[in-house]
C-alpha cells in the first residue's frame, strides 16, 4: 500500500489499509420445513349436477314468461328484468333486480330486492318470507308456482 505524503512537516504516519466491502455469508442449502406439495385427504364430492340438500322449482304459470321453469338449490337465484339475473323476466312491471330466492339450511326464502311493484306470496306483499311447497309468488305480471322437489 502506498501512504500519502506527510502533511505535518515530516512526522511519520501509519499507512492506511483498505478493507474489502461487506458481503453476506454464503447461505446454507435451504431445506423446506413443509414439503412443496402435500397430499390432501379426498372429500366426497356430490355427483355432477346434483346439489346437496333440498331443491326447488319455479314454474311461471302466467304473464309474459309463462311456461318457463327454473331450478333452485344451494345457490341463490335472482329474478328480474336485467340480463345479469339468473331468471330474466321480460315484463315492464318487473324491476331490474326484483327478488331473490335463497336456501337457508333446509328452507327456501324469497327476498324482495327493493322492487318498485313489490313481491307477493299468496297475494300478501312481503319483504322476506319463508316459502312452502305450493306457494304462489307474484313478480311483476308473472304468477310463479313454487315447489319443493322430492316432497
Q: Topology, pairings included?
A:
Blueprint: E1 55-62, E2 69-72, E3 77-80, E4 87-88, E5 99-104, E6 107-112, E7 119-121, E8 124-126, E9 128-131, E10 136-139, E11 142-149
Parallel strand pairs: 3-4
Antiparallel strand pairs: 1-2, 1-11, 3-5, 5-6, 6-9, 7-8, 7-10, 10-11
Biggest pleated-sheet summary: 6 strands, antiparallel
Distance between the termini: 98 Å
**Overall pLDDT metric:** 82
The percent range for strand residues is 25-35%
Tell me, what's the shape?
elongated
Mind telling me the C-alpha Rg?
36 Å
Low-confidence stretches: none
Strand tally: 11
Q: Strands of the largest sheet, in order across it?
A: 2-1-11-10-7-8
Given the structure, what is the number of helices?
0
**What structural category characterises the helix and strand content?**
mainly beta
Range of helix content: under 10%
Order of helices and strands: EEEEEEEEEEE
Could you explain the architecture of this structure?
The protein has 151 residues and is mostly beta strands. Helix content is 0%, strand content 34%. The chain has no helices and 11 strands. Strands 2-1-11-10-7-8 form a 6-stranded antiparallel β-sheet, with no helix packed on it. The radius of gyration is 36 Å and the shape is elongated. The termini are far apart.
Amino acid at each position: 500500500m502506498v501512504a500519502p505524503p506527510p502533511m505535518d512537516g515530516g512526522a511519520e504516519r501509519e499507512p492506511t489499509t483498505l478493507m474489502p466491502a461487506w458481503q453476506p455469508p454464503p447461505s446454507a442449502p435451504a431445506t423446506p420445513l413443509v414439503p412443496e406439495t402435500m397430499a390432501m385427504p379426498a372429500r366426497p364430492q356430490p355427483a355432477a349436477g346434483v346439489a346437496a340438500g333440498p331443491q326447488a322449482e319455479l314454474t311461471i304459470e302466467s304473464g309474459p314468461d309463462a311456461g318457463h321453469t327454473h331450478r333452485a338449490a344451494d345457490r341463490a337465484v335472482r329474478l328480474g328484468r336485467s340480463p345479469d339475473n339468473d331468471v330474466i323476466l321480460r315484463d315492464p312491471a318487473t324491476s331490474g333486480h326484483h327478488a331473490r330466492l335463497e336456501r337457508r339450511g333446509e328452507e327456501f326464502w324469497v327476498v324482495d330486492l327493493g322492487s318498485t311493484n313489490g313481491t307477493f306470496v299468496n297475494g300478501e306483499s312481503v319483504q322476506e318470507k319463508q316459502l312452502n311447497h305450493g306457494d304462489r309468488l307474484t313478480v311483476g305480471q308473472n304468477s310463479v308456482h313454487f315447489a319443493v322437489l322430492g316432497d
